[in-house]
Write a structure and sequence with these properties.
The chain is of the alpha+beta class. 43% of the residues lie in helices and 20% in strands. Helix 3 crosses helix 5 and helix 17 packs across helix 18. The protein starts with 8 loop residues before the first strand and ends in a 10-residue tail after the last helix. GO terms for molecular function: 3'-5'-RNA exonuclease activity; RNA binding.
């Protein structure tokens, strides 16, 4: 191998049936790190911008793989001419990375490349060769696997939702969703390909940003309710180590609910699933239209040619691709929904629910609840699964919130179960909101918590109240008092869940005894800044709906600010307001706060506020 230029060597690792080979990888040791090359087929040389093949590729957006056939994005002659092929020189777009032992990219070179010595391997063959010292490519593939494991560890340490369980066949895709791998991909060859391509796409995107070059960036955001990616990854690891297939399926369903689809765009918004500040798709120009578009832009920039797209054309292309992919997702979901519904109706007629695997049982139960007509035996089997702790959150919430008369006794039991495990109530509220919104829940716009200390009572005591908003509707819980914030939130959520389900409210308040010295305790120390004191009274709930408004008058060198602060004394309903002026906004606010504080504390001194019993 020493007589060959490593920059012109590459291994194409693909499925056995692949004909459109658009990437190859190579790696050499460099000190305690790696020299890495990713070669990408120069599809742009074979597809004229705006020509018939390009127009059809734009319409198709990507190659579609089916069990019985493949519908290629590009015509067969173009695929044959542009594919990387052993035994002949291949022009490529090359990404050359110098990476240290910790997985940090020290240097990246991008531009036209050439592949003169190459090999074809399946995922399984690459995996076998990496562990077989007798294989001619063992050294390269063993190093490639080490590199992939290093890059995977670096991404996981950054909080990425990166996971492969080759034994069970579960893995995460770039959007953080859990997917099942084909049997041919359940090996280390698959990991090699994935990590090389992620590294290449990330560095291409970073290079485009450094060059201020608009391409089709790949942007991704998790829903607000998804949680911290690192925490989700730890949960995936825990479920994987348990070997609990049902738990994996439940987590898989949950990740589908909270992970939004990634989109293409000419501006950067980051990629949360991969925990990368910038990302793109550029390594599959024979199979994905955005990769072909981006390759044209990269080649033009590298060769000093004018850009092939205006900003408007690039934005329009991104919008077209996003809309096409979303329409395809909806059509696919509708197809599987109809097929599942037909199978569900058949299983309902069979009425042998105890023998159904959980996934099929869940479909039958959901269908029956939505239809409002449960067949005989379904409620009893649901109760059995509840008692055996098999019933999962989605199905529990559906019966609890919407179950009809057939489920009435079971819903009463569920209500008691939830009262005993109030930490589950917030999850039930989340399901309720998702049903109303038809998608992910935002913790900023849909769920509103008010949690604050209650100094009017002896001992540490906190109140919590939750409100849900969707459309023009707002529903809220009663206020609940507990010894800590977590318990107060759980009891407030429990009360609202019961109200939404039309079931008895089994939530409770902790015993509370009013302080004898309540007025003195409620007063903020006189040394506290007036503006801060007013904010403290608002945080304690003594002053509700506090607002500050500012106005300014006069020329720039003699500006006069006016601040108006106002709010509502909680118990009396009295509106209090004050104004102050000053040369700065802060001075005006301080002046208004002095007067507003007097009004609040006058109410306290007269015993007009702070003496309510718990709600």
């Amino acid at each position: 191998m020493a007589v060959h230029n490593p920059a012109e060597c590459g291994i194409m690792i693909d499925a056995a049936t692949t004909v459109d080979r658009d990437d190859a990888v190579w790696i050499e040791p460099r000190g305690d790190g790696f020299d890495v090359w990713i070669h990408i087929a120069r599809a742009a040389d074979h597809v004229r911008t705006g020509g018939p093949a390009d127009t059809e590729a734009r319409r198709r957006v990507h190659t579609r793989y089916r069990a019985d056939h493949t519908r290629h994005m590009l015509p067969a002659p173009v695929v044959e001419a542009a594919s990387l092929t052993p035994g002949r020189p291949n022009d490529t777009f090359a990404v050359h990375l110098h990476i240290d032992a910790a997985g940090r990219v020290l240097d990246a070179e991008l531009g036209p490349g050439r592949l003169t010595r190459s090999w074809i391997m399946t995922h399984a063959e690459a995996a076998a060769a990496s562990g077989d010292p007798g294989h001619p490519l063992h050294g390269t593939l063993a190093l490639a696997l080490r590199f992939s494991q290093t890059m995977l560890a670096a991404r996981r340490n950054a909080g990425a939702l990166a996971f492969y369980d080759l034994l069970s066949g579960f893995a995460t895709n770039e959007e953080g969703q859990i997917v099942r791998l084909d049997s041919a991909e359940r090996n280390s060859g698959y990991i090699i390909v994935q990590e090389f391509m992620i590294a290449a796409n990330a560095q291409i995107a970073a290079w485009a940003v450094r060059e201020d070059l608009p391409i089709l960036f790949r942007n991704h955001r998790l829903a607000a309710v998804a949680g911290d990616p690192a925490g989700l990854r730890d949960e995936i690891d825990a479920v994987a180590s348990s070997g609990d297939g049902a738990a994996f399926e439940m987590l898989r369903s949950r990740m589908k609910m909270v992970s939004r689809a990634a989109t293409y765009g000419p501006t950067v918004h980051g990629h949360h699933g991969l925990q990368l500040p910038v990302y793109t798709h550029a390594t599959s120009p024979l199979r994905r239209y955005p990769d072909l578009v981006t390759q044209r832009i990269l080649l033009a920039a590298a060769l000093g040619r004018p850009g092939p797209y205006t900003a408007e054309e690039l934005a329009e292309t991104a919008a077209h691709v996003n809309a096409s992919l979303e329409a395809e997702r909806r059509a696919k979901a509708e197809f599987f929904k109809q097929r599942a519904q037909a199978e569900t109706e058949r299983q309902m007629e069979a009425a042998d629910f105890a023998t159904l695997p959980y996934k099929q049982f869940a479909r039958v139960l959901q269908f029956a609840v939505e239809r409002g007509d449960a067949p005989a035996g379904l409620a009893a089997d649901t109760a059995r699964r509840l008692d055996s702790r098999e019933l999962q959150l989605r199905e529990f919430a559906s019966v609890y919130l919407y179950g009809g008369d057939e489920f009435a006794p079971l819903r009463e039991r569920m209500n008691r179960r939830l009262a005993g495990e109030p930490q589950q109530a917030q999850s039930v509220l989340n399901v309720y909101l998702q049903d109303r919104l038809g998608g992910p829940v935002s913790s900023e716009t849909n769920v509103h918590w008010t949690v604050e200390p209650e100094p009017a009572f002896e001992g540490p005591l906190f109140s919590a109240q939750v409100a849900l908003t969707f459309g023009d509707t707002r529903v809220e819980s009663p206020k609940r008092l507990q010894r800590n914030k977590k318990d107060a939130r759980n009891q407030a959520a429990l009360a609202l869940a019961a109200a939404l389900a039309g079931l008895p409210d089994l939530s409770s308040d902790a015993p509370a005894k009013p302080r004898a010295d309540v007025q003195r305790k409620l007063l903020v120390d006189a040394a506290v800044n007036p503006a801060e004191a007013v904010q403290i009274y608002a945080a304690r709930g003594i002053l509700e709906g506090l607002t500050w408004d500012f106005a300014v008058e006069g020329p720039s060198h003699e500006r006069v600010f006016t601040c108006r602060g106002e709010g509502l004394l909680r118990d009396t309903g009295e509106q209090v307001r004050a104004e102050g002026t000053g040369p700065t906004k802060q001075a005006a606010k301080t002046a208004a706060s002095v007067e507003l504080r007097v009004l609040i504390e006058a109410g306290l001194a007269l015993g007009e506020t702070g003496s309510r019993s718990p709600a």
